[in-house]
Amino acid sequence: MRQKLLMGNWKMNKSYSQAVDIAQQLSYRASDFSGVETVVCPPFTSLKGVQNVFSFDNTPIKLGAQDVFWEENGAYTGFISAEMLKDLSVSYCIIGHSERRQNAGDTDEDIQKKAQALLKYGITPVICVGEPPVVHEARNSSDFVIEQLARALSGLEGAKDLVIAYEPIWAIGSGNVAAPEFAGEVCHALRVVVEKAFGKGFADKTRVLYGGSVMAENAGAYLMQDDIDGLLVGSASLDENSFSAIAKQM
Ligand code: 13P
User: Fold this and answer.
1) What is the pTM of this model?
2) Residues lining ligand 1, CB < 6 A?
3) Does residue 145 contact residue 209 with C-beta atoms inside 8 Å?
């Protein structure tokens, strides 16, 4: 049995004080999150503040980062290494999010190098894949994300833990939700990619998440799909009420 995983991606939202504030709100209602492994991914500037709140309150919510650079250290202005994240008790790190592929030019090869750097420090990579609207309209969604994932996975043999997130670009922040059965089928196809790369045992324990306009109202329908093991939530994770309403359905 795979444990369900709920991740909140705050993206470029919340100042330090706002991040600490919502971390406190989430801590007060920690019991809402007791049935599910929960991770929040604040901007880098708030990782330490959020971690302080969770460790002071002994809150079971874990910390994730939104990106990493693959080099260990050196003259890389503005980048953050896996070792730096590990030092802040980061357990998970999103890589390959479509917003980074689009705005920062991240390629599948970059994502593979980022995953390797994270694995070296015991941080679980959350590898995001997702197709643009034109691919979806041409009904090529599965083929597109299968190739994206296969490229990202090459060279990751020996990984202890990976999380895969299917986030169709046309569903992110748009309110255009993917039909749960469709999302379930694509997530199944992604699990088959993991199986081909690393074998059935590893694929059976790898969690595949869905993300894209997830709200309390539609979360339950995704979770009913056999191959969807959790949710990667953007806007609805920015408010403690909507995030905990999703957690209660998991
Ligand atoms: P929304 O939930 O705002 O659509 O964002 C999804 C996402 O990109 C999570 O990484």
Assistant:
1) 0.97
2) 9, 97, 167, 172-173, 211-214, 232-236
3) no
